[in-house]
Amino acid sequence: MKNIVLEELRKNKDKYFSGEELSKKLNVSRTSVWKHINKLKKEGYIIESSTNKGYKLMETPDTLYPAEIGRLLDTKKIGREILFIESVDSTNNYGKKICEKDFTDGALVIAEEQTMGRGRLGREWASPKGDGIWVSILLKPDLKPSDASKITILTAYAVAKSIRELLGLDALIKWPNDIVIDGKKVCGILTEMGAEIDIINYLIVGIGINANIKEKYLIDNGLNTAASLRIIKGEPIDRKVLLSKLIKNFEKLYIDFIKTLSIVNLLKDYKKISATLGREVRVIY
To answer: What CATH number is attached to the domain comprising 203?
Structure first.
């Protein structure tokens, strides 16, 4: 009901909507409307209240609430269910607990903060509150475990493509799972799975994007090889818009791959924005 109240206010954003009008339209009491308005205010929505006029939505918060992300998506599978947590140790850890029971294919786990974010090889991933996009995509692909690495490849391309399209920044893919701009890391991807010998039971694609992290935070935490999109762009990034574009791009690539089980065509575009091809790499195992 809270989200329905929000949507009605959003539709009438430039004018007041009386509590009586809302209660009649939604078939609830005015007291119920008032309670939901207060819940929205606590979540950071700026809603102007007037005894004689009613309520008017003035501003939406910079959060990744399901109601905000869902309205920007027109996807068929990815993001049709969104699980939101203010603070979690790791979205991948949280997703793993869900996947070991039952879950919706394509569900998203989104957090405003990760207290123990993880990268490859167990490395810590700094995930300050409200400054990044910390999300895991939960999948049930009919694939062999050997195909899992291809999901990481298409995810990396989806992230780089989204940053390029939305922000006009020269995002490159640093094999196998990082996105860099001007040599600085702005995104990491961690793909994990539960599998048997010949079949994947679930796949979790964790994505961490340094969207609006400030330079002081990176310096204070000794993150000299990292940057944020805000620092590079010189202005705050709309996280909701970037995440929704990423999910749309990911779904298209993912569906194409599931249909063909091939990334040959994708690799042609991938190579064009690779930061690794033609360079020496050091393999750590």
So the answer is: 3.30.930.10
> Is the pTM above the cut of 0.85?
yes
Using omega within 30 degrees of 0 as the cis cutoff, is the peptide bond preceding 141 cis? no
| Residue-wise pLDDT tens digits, 171-193 | 999 988 999 999 999 999 999 99
- In which domain, by residue range, is 246 found? 66-272
pLDDT(119) > 70? no
CATH classification of the domain holding 40? 1.10.10.10
Task: Using alpha carbons, select from 152, 208, 214, 154 the residue that is nearest to residue 185.
Answer: 208
| Band of pLDDT at residue 281, cut at 50, 70 and 90 | low
Q: What is the mean pLDDT of residues 49-70?
A: 91
**Are both 35 and 91 inside the same structural domain?**
no
Number of folded domains in the chain?
2
CB 243 within 8 A of CB 64: yes
- The token pair at 109 is 């786990």
- Two tokens at 180? 């860099």
- Enclosing H/E stretch for 10: helix 2-11
Distances (CA, A) of 114 to 64, 130, 220: 14, 10, 18
Is the same domain home to 37 and 165? no
Tokens 């009008």, residue?
Answer: 21
User: Which residue among 59, 87, 105 closes a domain?
Assistant: 59
Q: Scanning the structure block, which residue is given the tokens 């009649």?
A: 24
